[in-house]
Structure formats: structure tokens, C-alpha cells
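Give me C-alpha cells for this 569-residue protein.
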Amino acid sequence: MVGAIIGDLAAWTWEHDKNLFFKKLVMPEAIPSHLCEDMLLTANLLMRQKDMDYETYSRHFKSANQTATILRAIAIGWLYDTEQETRSAYQKYSLSDDKEDWYAGAFMCLLIFALRHGSSKKEAASVEHIAPFKDMIDDWKNKDSILGTLMRAWEAFRSSFDFGSALHNAMLLSGDHHVNAIFVGALADAMYGCGWYFVKSKYGDGCALNCYKYVPKEIMQLHRDKRTFFPKNCAAANVEKHQWHDVPNPYKDKIITPELYRRILKAFQPCFDYRFGFYLDDGFVYVYRSGWVLQRFHLVNQGDGTYRITTLQSSECVSESDNPIKEALYAVEYRWDLVSEEKNSCKNTCNLPNRLAFFGISRHRIGIDGNGVTTLVTFMGCPYKCKYCLNERCHAPVFEEDGTTPRNGILLLSPQELYDKVKIDNIYFQATKGGICFGGGEPLLHSDFIKEFREICGNKWKITVETALACSWADINLLAPIVDHWIVDIKDMNPNIKAQYTGMPENSLVSLNLLKGNGITQNVTVKVPHIPEYNTDKDVAKSIEQIRGLGFKDIVECQYIKFNGNNKK
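Here you go.
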């Protein structure tokens, strides 16, 4: 619906200044025509009551002209949650007595529904009413009728690569510029979105659209809530064509759960800390960073509710050392609470607020996880894929195939629920100056949770975190004032060794400097491991020397145990 309104404004701009149309798409002084009134009225009525009786609904409309039928169909295509509901609603609320008019509206309604749910252009064109839409295009696109207008609008959209190019194509169509732009804009918005508009360089500098004053806030909210994927234009990625080539796919066996699949498609607005993101465009999921398209892949349904990543390709913008898909997956899998507009979304999979997944709570630990008697609490999830990981379970799926039932042994707890479980040992904690040690997995991925837990338990318990610092600077800054003791496993100070062992190209020097910058050196234990086949005694000695140079004094050497598959050597 938003795209239809912008299309109407763009047509006004085209009629008044074609050069400015190509540069800005919409002039600041552009005003909408009356054409979108029926669409907005339909949306307004049915948002209030989706099953409104026909008589009450029909009394609000003055006429049933052909264009109005299509516009009502656009609104209906956005309002309902299932295809069957959408079909039924159109049957009830189309208000058309003309056969061709009614067919055109039915197609538009189903096209909008399919596109806003992530269908490719090819998939959407297969929607059926009296026949598959694609089979009727050639027979009708040259006819001077409402169905012909819709077919030409589809062709203009089909040959586009973003919202702006679709409206450029619309202006070249015969007939009424406003009608064409409204139809094309509605189709393009359903697939690409229209939050941002970036033109190709040959058209000028481009701009962010600034015309939402004509869009009711209720429509804008509906537009955000009813879309199941993050649209291309909102990614603020460049629209230039790229050369694609197949690359090895290290994620072919990664289980994409229903929840992770939803997050990948929904995605997020990039920010300073999480500049990598996803968007869906015509069947491919694209990975981008800071305006550049880097990789793309398909998500294939396995028939059991889970998905797999296939057909991984890179653009010419990716160097051999880059791993954009890893960065983007990390954000949606482990930092969804920060990158998403969905409040507490990563914590409420079971529809309960602030719940996170844990694979263990171990009581009465002495001299292992800090001072006194401690309880070790282990989070699910870690961005590292360490070759000799002792807690591989942290990488296992949290839920059964239904995406909602926790797997055996996994606890979903809020900070308050965790406190209620561990407070049984309060007397031991206070008597021995012990408390809670958060491990995992990577506990610093859940800094908000730990902070909230501290607020509940107060300062009577010591809080320790056992971490590899596989987190953002924001997580360290948040926890610096409230964590009593840090146990840091740096793997190795050599970034190349660390990357080979963990699969993540992170620099331990940077992470330790973040601790130092927060004034944290005295209450930190730094573990420096000997890692068979990855570092040498000389490497360990170099790491210790670097760590001491930063001001850390409590340094512990340890020996990792090599694994061969699932068997210890």
C-alpha cells in the first residue's frame, strides 16, 4: 500500500519534472491524487474488523469502478494472514460486478499476498484464479482493458531490480501514469519494500524518500508487521549488477531451525556494530555490508520444518579473507535482541518474556570457577567452532523440529526464574564469598540477561564470567561494572592461529584492550592454552609475554585435549 501511494506521488513528479523524477523519484511538493482513497478506506475498515459484514462495508464506497477494485485488492492482499483468508476476503469485499474487473482484482490480491511472503517473481506469477497468472500475460498485455493494464504493470515490475527501477519502467507504459505507477508501485513494494530509494549512478545521486506524510501511521505499522522478510530497498545496499561465482559452502550441514529461518528473512537495519545483514530478492537471500552486496544463497526446506543453505555464491566484492555470511549469521543467531526491532524476540520463543536457553546448572563447585562455592550456569550458543570444544552441546539446536519445544535437558529461563533456581545455595555463596559463574557457550552474548540477573540478586553474590570474549565491545562495556571476576580463555594471541582453531578471525589483543580500557586487569584470570596441532610452546610464550605487557598478572597455562571425532585421544 505504501508503494502504491509513492507511485501516485512519483507520477505527479513525472508529469511536472521528468529530470527530477529520475533524480529524486518524488518531489517534495508532490501531492497524491484521489485514486488511492478506496485502498486506504478498505484498509481502514478491515483493520478494525476483518470479518465486517458486507452491508456495513459496502455503504462506505461510492462506486465500483475498475481501478478502485484493484486498489481494494491491494489492501486485502496485505491484511490477511493466510492465502485462504485472503481469497475469501476478496470474494466478500471486492464490490465488483464486472467479470474482467473482478478477475484483475483477484490476481492483484494474490500477487501482493505471494510477494509480501517472500515468493520470487516466478513463483508469484504462478498464482491461480481462473488460470495461472503467467499463462494469461501474453494474451492480455496488449489489450486496452483493466486486465491488460495489470499485465503491463506486472511486466514493468518483472523487469525491475528495485523499487525505483520499477517506477522508471512504469512511466514508459501507455495509459494513465498514475494508475500505472500505483499498480507497479504496489507490486514492487510487496517484494522490494520502499523504505529507502537508491538509484543507479546513471540516474543521479539518489535520495531517501521523504513522502510518508501522506501515509497513515496505521498503514506504516501494518506494512512493517505483515511483511515476513526484510526487503531489498531497506538494506540500503547498492543496486549495481554483480558478477557471481560459486564458492565452497561450509554451512551446507548447518541446521536452520524455523526460528532461525524466520530471523534470517526478517533481518534488521544495519548499525555500527552489526553492519552485515540479509535481504530477500527473487528467491535468493543476499548478504550485504555497508551498502555492498557480498554473497547470496538459497534456503531449501528439508521437509521436516528445517532448512539448509545451498548454492552459496560470492560477488566480485568479496576477498578470500572475507566471510560475510558468518558475520550475518552471527548477528541473527546470537544478537537478535540487539539488532531486531522485535523486543525480547530472541528470548521469547516460547511466548514468555526474557527467556534464554541453558544446557546446564552445576551446583557446589569449589575452587574451579572463582572464589568459594559457585554454581556454574551454561548458556547455549557460541560464535566459535573450536576444534576441541568441550561443550559441543552449546551448538546443538535448542528446539525440537516444531521450533517451540525445548530439546531434552535444555532449560528456558528468565533472569528471575534462574535466580529462583540457584538461590537455594544462598547461604553457601555468602559464607564462602562465592556465587554464580556464567559460562557456556559464550556468556557475553547475553550481557543484558546477566545485567538483569545482577539487579535481582544484588551485590551479595560474586558474579564470574568464563568467556572467550567472542562478543562486541558493547557487551564488555555493559558488564564491566557488575562482574566481579573474569576468566578469559584467549586461545592464542596470534590472530592466524586463533582463526584456524576457532573459525573466527578475531584478535585477542583487541578484546583484552577492551577490558584494560574499562580498568579491568586485577580481577582477570587469563588462560593461555597449549593447543595440539595449532600452537607451539613458543607461541604460548609469546602470548604470555604480550598479555603481561598489557598489565594482566594472573595468567594460567593450560593444556587442551585433542579430539578425534567424538573420541578423546
